[in-house]
Amino acid sequence: EEVGQMIAEALGFRLDDGDARTLAEAVSSAGRDYPPVPADGAGLVLAALGDAALGVISDTGLTFGMHLRQAMDAHGLAGAFGHFTWSDETLTTKPAARQFLYTLHMLGVPPDRAVHVGDLEAADIVGAREVGMRTIRVGDTSLPSQAEAVVPTLAAVVEVLRRWGMQM
Fold first, then answer.
1. How far is residue 60's CA from residue 86's CA, in Å, rounded to a whole number?
2. Are the C-beta atoms of residues 56 and 84 closer than 8 Å to each other?
3. Which residues of the chain have pLDDT under 50?
4. 25 vs 64: CA distance, rounded Å
5. What count of other Cβ atoms lies within 10 Å of the Cβ of residue 140?
6. What is the full DSSP assignment across 133-160?
7. Which pLDDT score, from 0 to 100, does residue 168 have?
8. Which of the 8 DSSP states describes residue 38?
9. What integer pLDDT is reported at residue 63 of this predicted model?
């Protein structure tokens, strides 16, 4: 209901709770009906990370967290993560410190012992660095970044973590 109301308010109107819920469900149906697929190599990277405490911090957009979790489950990936922080559930988005600090708290990991891997400079890298986490940006390596490492693919993250001496 809250998400539906936020969408309505952004469009300049207010809905009753039932209509707000219906709007949110309609918006999220694309993510439910056409779930995203994991990035190439995601399963191999998670396997290489072993027993590391892992969490997801995601700005969900049109695919709600419950649908993302189901998609990850369908691909056998959800079990690797100790906590999920979805923006549609917290009603907060990155780069807000709250998203990162809450996830770290739930995992029992202090910021200075954590690495955030993301693809968006303004949301992922800036937000994680502001709370004291190390950062790896996945994407175009020719673009400037505040991240401590920039890699072209998710698979390359493992090598950076090994270089940094991270236990996996």
1. 6
2. yes
3. none
4. 9
5. 10
6. -EEEEES-TTS--SSSEEESSGGGHHHH
7. 66
8. P
9. 83
How many other CB atoms are there within 10 angstroms of residue 96's CB atom? Answer: 17
Short-list 114, 82, 121, CA closest to 100: 114
Give the per-residue pLDDT at 26.
86
Pull the structure tokens for residue 6: 């936020």
Q: 19 with 4: CB under 8 angstroms?
A: yes
CB-count exposure of residue 88 (10 Å: 0-12, 13-18, 19+)? buried
Distance CA 64, CA 66 (A): 6
Yes or no: say if 158 and 49 are a contact pair by the CB < 8 Å rule.
yes
This prediction has a pTM of 0.84
Eight-state DSSP code of residue 162: H
Identify the pLDDT of residue 30.
Answer: 76
User: Residue 34: what pLDDT?
Assistant: 82
